[in-house]
Amino acid sequence: MNNSRRTFLKVAGVSAFALTTGVAGAAQAKIIGTYEQGDKALKAKRWAMVIDTRKFTSADDYKPLIDACHKAHNVPAIPGNQEIKWMWLDHYDRVFTDDMNANLPDKFKKGMFPLLCNHCTNPPCVRVCPTGATYKMHDGIIAMDYHRCIGCRFCMAGCPYGARSFNFVDPRKFIADPVPNPEYPTRMIGVVEKCTFCAERLAKGLRPACVEAANGAVMFGDLDDPNSDVRKALAENFSIRRKPSLGTQPGVYYLI
Amino acid sequence: MYNKTYVLAGIIIFVALFTTPFWTGIMSGSYQRPAVQLPANEKECVEPVEYMRAEHMQLLNDWRDQALRNEARVYVSSTGKKWEISLQNTCLKCHNNTTEFCDKCHISNSVYPYCWTCHIEPKGKK
Questions:
Q1: Where are the beta strands (DSSP E) in B1-126?
Q2: Interface with chain A: mutation pick from B65, B70, B120, highest number of A CBs within 10 Å
Q3: Which end of chain A has fewer CB atoms < 10 Å from its terminal CB, N or C?
């Protein structure tokens, strides 16, 4: 009995040695290239957006922005409560819920305001994601890796802004074929999706689709750069953010 | 030992059944490498063909993490050439017929990746 234990320990020792020194790991793949950012890529320390709501008079004025976004990202048009929202509209009292003033001018009481992912500095969705499928990038964008998403929807419960949508059904059935933007993927059933601040467009040197469609009414830039469009707009105008009391520090500002 | 004949016969039958996959493998002849259809107009892939054949899945995995998490969307290959990191806009621009390229090997090796539930599958030249 002692003899067999001795043999077992010998084999175990040699195996552990082989594994830790890489004898057995030699078959592992090597990446032989290197990676870099594109030459044309727009760079920032903290991307932020300023929406000048004074330049939009009705809900229809926001339509080109939403259409541009949904076309660029192949967002399906699913009717009812299973809808997918990257950018959408809602009433003032549901957008700025901290503002309890009942006697507001009509343009606030009845007007519509645009909503999207706030790309928070302290994102609750990232804290609750069990797989690391959603994460904060070095430039402040809260991004998603749909390959990792297991569809648990913790992030949807965590997000105080309702900015995340779950694919209850196969979204392909609700997207035109061929898709509006063949350069961008769609999503599949069982994953959560949201606005990405157009990270794939920034990499090519383009501003986000909604910013481009807004003709200057929506500004986009580096919040850490005092000379950026967003900082200038924030310095010259009064701005508000959604649910500031939660401490999430949203990156989307509204000029009212 | 009791019932020696039955026990031994049983063991032999068990071993024969247990190793059937090996016997059928040996009987059915050598493995034929599937004839994949390479892109007609393109001679150069991101990396040498032996590397791509063996490691493309690792490379795609790494590409995804670098592009999505580090914003590093340019791959500098071992030859120094720069490539945009994108399955749809780089790989599939040349390999535009997935049934004649991807599926050939994947099916004969019983690998079924589900790329096309999200990524747009090129229809290929008819």
A1: 74-76, 82-84
A2: B120
A3: N
Q: Where are the domains of chain B?
A: 44-85, 86-126
Tell me the pLDDT of chain B (126 aa) as tens digits: 889 999 999 999 999 999 999 988 888 877 788 888 899 888 899 999 999 999 999 999 999 999 999 999 999 999 999 999 999 999 999 998 999 999 999 998 999 999 999 999 987 544
Beta-carbon separation of A36 and B74 below 8 A = yes
Q: Do A145 and B78 touch (CB under 8 A)?
A: no
The residue of chain A nearest to residue B85, with distances taken between CA atoms, is: A35
Q: Give strand ranges (E) for chain A.
A: 34-36, 47-52, 87-91, 112-116, 134-136, 142-144, 165-166, 192-193, 218-222, 239-240, 252-255
Instruction: Name the residue type at position A168.
Output: F
What is the model's pTM? 0.84
Mind listing the domains of chain A with CATH numbers? 47-121+137-143+160-255 (3.30.70.20)
Half-sphere exposure of A242 (CA within 13 A, CB side): 25
**CB contacts, 8 Å: B66 with chain A:** 35
Q: In this predicted complex, what is the ipTM?
A: 0.84
CB distance B78–A33 less than 8 Å?
yes
B69/A137 touch (CB, cutoff 8 Å), yes or no: yes
Considering only the beta carbons, identify the residue of A31, A137, A147 that sits closest to B71: A137
Q: Are the Cβ atoms of B71 and A31 closer than 8 angstroms?
A: no
